[in-house]
Design brief:
The protein is 29% helix and 22% strand. By secondary structure, the protein is α/β, with parallel strands linked by helices. It has three domains: 51 residues, no CATH class; 265 residues, Carbamate kinase (3-Layer(aba) Sandwich), CATH 3.40.1160; 83 residues, PUA domain (Archaeosine Trna-guanine Transglycosylase, Chain: A, domain 4, Roll), CATH 2.30.130.10. An eight-stranded mixed beta sheet has the order 8-9-7-6-10-12-13-11, sandwiched between helices. Strands 15-14-16-17-18 form a five-stranded mixed beta sheet. β16 and β17 form a beta hairpin. α2 crosses α5 and α7 runs parallel beside α8. The protein is globular.
Amino acid sequence: MRLIFERKCFFVKRKEREGAKKDFKYNHSRNFVVHLLDFSFKTPIWHLEQSTHFNMEPKFKRITIKIGSNVLTKKDGSLDFTRMSELVDQIAELYKQGVEIIIVSSGAVAAGRSKVLADKLDSVSARQLFSAIGQVKLINRYYMLFRDYNITCGQVLTTKESLSTRGHYLNQRNCMQVMLEHGVIPIVNENDTISVTELMFTDNDELSGLVATMMDSEALIILSNIDGIYNGNPNDPGVEVIREVLPGKRDLSEYIQTSKSSFGRGGMQTKTNIAGKVADEGVEVIIANGKKNNILIDLLTKREQTVCTRFIPSSEEASSVKKWLAHSDGFAKGEIHVNAGASEALTGDNATSVLFVGVTDIKGNFEEDDIVKIMDGKGEQIGVGKTQYDSEKARQLIGQKGQRPLVHYDYLYLD
């Protein structure tokens, strides 16, 4: 059987069949030539699916796509190369339509995982080793897949600590901005070879949220192995996916199950928290099923028909500094505790700085320009900010009036 068809109209997707005999030849014109030589299977060895080549104006000019571990791995924990290929097909289609794309990809540890080595190492050492091996395999696979579309991709490995200062944050932003300006797709992942315990991001959901806001993405698409956030147990009858989450109604804790994903570090609670925070910063967030064929194209071209959970963005976009502060809880070097009056003023409608007159206690040791948490009288966090004093000087000024603000409003982010 000989099939010839236009490359721009179809994707050829290989379905792996163990022991199947197959011959694939590529015609270097605009056509594919496919020979199927094995008829021992009732289902096709090769699956042909019509591409959604759309001529409409894309809704978004720049998006961040987070591809989770459960999307890129098979049941045995190994990397799913077929799924990677299908996602790259769709990303390439969006790229050709002029959409700037940043990928935050999990899968390095899965790509490098070895059962033999895992039994001999502790969990931290195993993760570091598998990541070192897997990063090479993962980025090389992405490189080869994008090369078929004459698209260049580049690897960006980062750590939580490297984004803890404003200067490092801006350096990271500038690096990826230069890549996008030159048509290169950044593929971002945490550097698990050196990120351990408290220095790690919660998972790549947290990293993707930081990247999306840092790069002024209009949308963050979080691909998982479920259709979205359900209004109950997905296995119960009548339970449905929550299609929209509006500003001011982000608390979905009553619906969230606390279990983590099979191969990743995070769960749906983490995704929901990150999605709400990012949407409040003016970025639309979509949680969808990355295992579904054509999901990325459908999300952007068939908004009403495609099942997913969309976090509708706030109409007020946060400043660049506040976007950085919003994701800096993990960098905090100390705590500023304020009284009830200061807490009420800070969380009110008017812009208010953290003044010494309302401070009751200072915990931890920090330097000027370090990140600190702002705590209310009950010990609950109400925000984070960049301090204008070191901790020693700040303690001397507790309760005083007429001093320069401990944390200025421009460098204060309230939860």
